[in-house]
Amino acid sequence: MPDCERTFFVGAISKEEQEQYAIEPIPLEDLSYLEKNEYVALVTSPFMLPYVHRILPHKMIALLERNQEEESSGFHTKFNALLAAQAQLIGSNSEKVYLEQCFRHENVLYLPNEAQETKVWEEAVRALNRDEPTVPWKHLQWESRATYYRKLHKQWGEHETVCYLLASYLYLLEQPSAKHFLAVSFEQMMLKDHPDCLRSHFRFFSAIEAQAGNLDHAIRIYAITAFNEEEKRSVQTLYELLDKGKLDFIQAEIFRLNDDFHSAIRTLQQASGDSDADHFILSDYLLAFRWEEALRLLDRIGVPADERHLADMLRGTIQLIRGGRHKAVQSFLRGAVSDWRALNSIAEVEQWDQATRSVLGGLYDDSRADSQNDG
After folding, report:
1. b vs e for 177-214, b when ≥16 Cβ sit within 10 Å of the residue's Cβ?
2. Maximum alpha-carbon separation in the chain
3. Staple partner for 79: which of 46, 199, 269, 327, CB 3.0–4.6 Å?
4. d(CA 32, CA 135)
5. Cβ-based burial of 264 (10 A; exposed 0-12, middle 13-18, buried ≥19)
6. Vertex 293, ends 259 and 312: CA angle to 5°?
7. What are the C-alpha distances in Å from 205 to residues 193, 232, 255, 259?
8. Quick check: 276 and 288 in contact, CB under 8 A?
9. For the segment 25-49, what is each residue's pLDDT rounded down to a tens digit?
10. pTM over cut 0.70
11. Residue 89 belongs to what H/E stretch?
C-alpha cells in the first residue's frame, strides 16, 4: 500500500516479510480495536468481510484471484462477486477475472507483475485514498492493454485470441476499430473449425453496433443467435422497444445480453424520468451481483407483493456478509413465507460457516470462526 503510515496484516507472515514491506501482524480479534473509518482494507476473500466491516474501513479494495476449482461452484462465484460489489476498487492478476469485472463495475484494475502496471495501481490507490476518481487510471490501463495486443497482433499475425482481446479493449475505449478485430477473430475461429464461436462473437458484434448507435442493426445481429424461447422473447422485447422509440432501453438491453452490465446500468441511469427504467436497472443490478444497489432501489420504489421474497433474500445475504448471521436467517425465513425457494439461502449459511473456517485454516479454532456471527 503506497503512502501508508502503518500497514497491518491478518495471517501468517514471516519476519523477513514484515521488515521488507513494513507490515505489522495483527490478530484477527484485535481488528475491532483499530480506529474506525481510518483504514483502507485489502480483502482477498469474501469470507473475511464480517471481520473487515468491524473496522468500518475508509475504503475497501477487493483483490480477486482466478480459482478454476471455485469457478465451478456457484456458491463461491456468488460470494466473490459480492465481495467485488462491496469494494471501491477491484484488482486482479487474472485478465479473465479483470475483464469480467470491467463489465460489471466502474473501478477495476489489472495487476500483472509488470513495473508499468504496478505504477498505475499505486497511483490509483493514492487517488482512492484521497477520495479522487480512479477512472483516469482505468482508462490509461485499457489503452496500455490495447497497445500490448496491437504489438502481439503485429508479431503473431491474425491470431483469434489476440484479436478478440484487442477488440475487447477497443470496445471498452469505445473505438470503432473494435469491429474490425472482432471480425478477424471470428474468421480465424471459423477457419480453425470452432463453430461454437457464433454466439459469443455475434453477441459482441451486436454490442459494438449498439455502442455506435446502430440499434436496428444491433437487434438483427442479436437475432441471429436467438435460438431458444427466452432469447426469442428478448428479440421481441427489443422490437417492441424500437416501436416505442425507447432507444436508450434498446441499447441497454443489448449491452446486458452481451454481459456488459456496467454499460447497461450507466445507459439506463441516463434515461432519467422514465419509470420503466427501474425494472431494467433492477435486473442488471441482480445479474451483476450489485445487490446492495438493487436493495436500495427496491426500498426507494416500493417492493411489490410478489417481490418481497427477493428483497428479503437480498437483505439477508448482505446481512450475512456484514456479520449479521442471525438477522440473515430471520430475513431468509421471512422470505420463505412467500417463496419456499428462499430456504436455499438458509442452506447457504452453513456453507458460509464452513468456508469461513476453511479460510481461517489453522490460524484460529472453530469457536473463533463462529464468533463473527453475533450480529
Report:
1. ebbebbebbbebbeeeeeeebeebbbbbbbbbbbbeee
2. 67
3. 46
4. 32
5. buried
6. 105
7. 20, 18, 11, 13
8. no
9. 888 888 888 899 889 999 999 999 9
10. yes
11. strand 89-92
